[in-house]
């Protein structure tokens, strides 16, 4: 699981949040992602998303250049999603730690 999550986190610099309400976030691809996708497989992204118990559903849409993720806002606080996709490495680390701790404590692992 960790290998998939770390690969997707490397991709986070190539996406931005286009819309976010508690429980649902839409990420849009930035232009440089096409070159990056050659080193990533869509299966890796899907496995990473599936490995997070608090992610209820996701959709990759190549036509719109977006990823829609539905998550449990009780398990993952919406502010953590914003931090997870920020450009600040410290914020990302805090978000990852908070999400992992919450998932581990909830027994959903």
Automatic annotation (TrEMBL):
Domain of life, source organism: Bacteria
Protein name as annotated: Cation transporter
């Amino acid at each position: 699981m960790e290998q998939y999550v770390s690969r997707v986190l490397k991709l986070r610099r190539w996406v931005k949040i286009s819309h976010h309400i508690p429980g649902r976030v839409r990420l849009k691809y930035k232009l440089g992602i096409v070159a990056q996708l050659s080193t990533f497989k869509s299966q890796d992204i899907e496995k990473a998303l599936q490995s997070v118990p608090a992610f209820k559903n996701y959709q990759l849409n190549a036509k719109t250049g977006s990823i829609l993720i539905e998550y449990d806002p009780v398990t993952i606080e919406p502010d953590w999603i914003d931090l997870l996709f920020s450009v600040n490495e410290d914020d990302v680390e805090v978000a990852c730690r908070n999400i992992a701790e919450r998932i581990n404590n909830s027994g959903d692992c």
